[in-house]
Amino acid sequence: MDDAELSEFFANHWRTVKANCNKDLEEGDRFKLEEVQSWQDLRTIVLEGRGDLGSVPHQIDRLKPTLVHYNQFLEFSEKEMGTGFSTAFVWGLLGVILQVAAEDPRTLEKIPKMMKRLGNKIEEFNTYCRNADSVTKLMREGCFDMLTQLVEFTTALIKSIRDNTSPGSSEQWSQLEKQFTSTEHDVNETLVRLEKLTLVNSTGVAGTIASHKNTTAHVSRCFILPPTKAPRFFNRTDVFDKIDSALERNSTGTSLRSVALHGLGGIGKSAIASRYVDKKIEDNDYDAIFWVQAEKTASLRQSFTDIALRLKLDGAEPQKHEENKDLVQDWFQTSTSRWLVVYDNVELAEILMPYWPGSSHGKAIITSRNHTLAFQPASSGIEILSWDPKTGSEFLFFLLKQAIGRDIQEEGISALELSTRLNGHALGISHMAGMIQDSDWSITEFMKAYRKNPRSAHTRDLGDSSDSEDVDDSEQMSDLEAIWHFSFTTLKKDHPTSVKILGVAAFLMPDNIPQAIFEFPEGSEKIKGFKFCEDGIKYVETFTFTSMD
User: Fold this and answer.
1) Which domains does the chain show, CATH number per domain?
2) For residue range 32-44, what is the model confidence (pLDDT) as tens digits?
3) Could you please report the per-residue DSSP string of 330-389?
């Protein structure tokens, strides 16, 4: 397609995009759109408060430098898209969305931040173009893609707010943040594609997008590590090479590289990621590494606040989680540091996406039971499998060390049997090793006890059969289910107070639970079922079965 044909394509497609967007706007917003047709109109009507806004909210006033980048981008668009190409529609949409944002305090907090983050991407493109020897077809196509993405997202944002009966509600913003994250990802992909194609075609661009960003100060060493470590790491070092390959594959330093470690719960994904991080610190491969607890939105928010505070980013404060998230996202985009972020125990992509780096560089690792994350948002995936029976038995020997019976041959046979029953599952084997050590049994003695009561260890807890006439006592658990049934039944019988602590831990989160919440000052209100916390001996005995720092 030559230049003339490309210009005609832009013109035709642009008319379609504008027509579709116009259909989604209310009549009043279409009227406001006609009022703002240029950068000058936006400054006069919106930024100087001469329109319906009156006084300009400070959140919008602070957007002026960002809107300068928008102006430079739109000037480039009008010049390079072809004769007669107009960006007046874009200016109209920007005017409408800023006025919509000012109508509600909740939208006023969110929308300017979205515009600023998109403005950062636009600034990257502008800088790239300024440093190019000439405007190429690739640059024109990239510009048009970004223009279309900007217009379609802004229209969707306006429509969503207008259609919603309660603007600013958490449910509404959950959907809007998904749309924004998707748009930011698409814009980033456009920049990355432009960079890669430029390098392949050797068009003589004077630099790269990454090398010409407005960057923040370089961080020499900044690490936020997992709250708990796996003290005895066994095997799995082959996975490190796979992670290295995934994070370095086709990497030019101008695209975010990411990999998802996925597999069954308790298989060792977090332990692998934790040991990998330790190795990278030892090898000095990164300037900054951040371990993010990603199971819930609350833990993600707190982790990003911790990162903002550790990096000492301007404006970071302990309770301003949304602002801190934006500060960290900006840092991901603009820092020249070599950084890696690990999102541990991710459950759903929807929860993760607002915290996923909107960056054209850097590295990210996900650990999750959800294999779909290997396709989106991660760029690749590695499945972590159970060990084969032999390796699992070697792991059991590795854990027990001195607690192995005298008959090594018999112990080896029993270890292999146990590993086979547990399907080589790391957490299952580790848990059984703990039970063997606590009981002062050999592996062989433990297996004799384990075999004696298969109904208790391998069938479901059916409760009172009188409540159900169709109970099948032969219904079998999986081997892994048997581990938990066997473990919790024993714990409940022998250490009922530990079960209460376990319940609290499961409700809160398994990491970083302050011990102080179980310590009741004299005269304070007592909680039913936790009287044992007042008894020093029982208190210590209870916490024997938990990990404490």
Assistant:
1) 3-212 (no CATH), 222-383 (3.40.50.300), 387-462+475-494 (no CATH), 510-549 (no CATH)
2) 899 999 999 998 8
3) HHHHHB-S-EEEEEEEE--HHHHGGGS---SS-EEEEEES-GGGGTTTSS-EEEPPPPPH
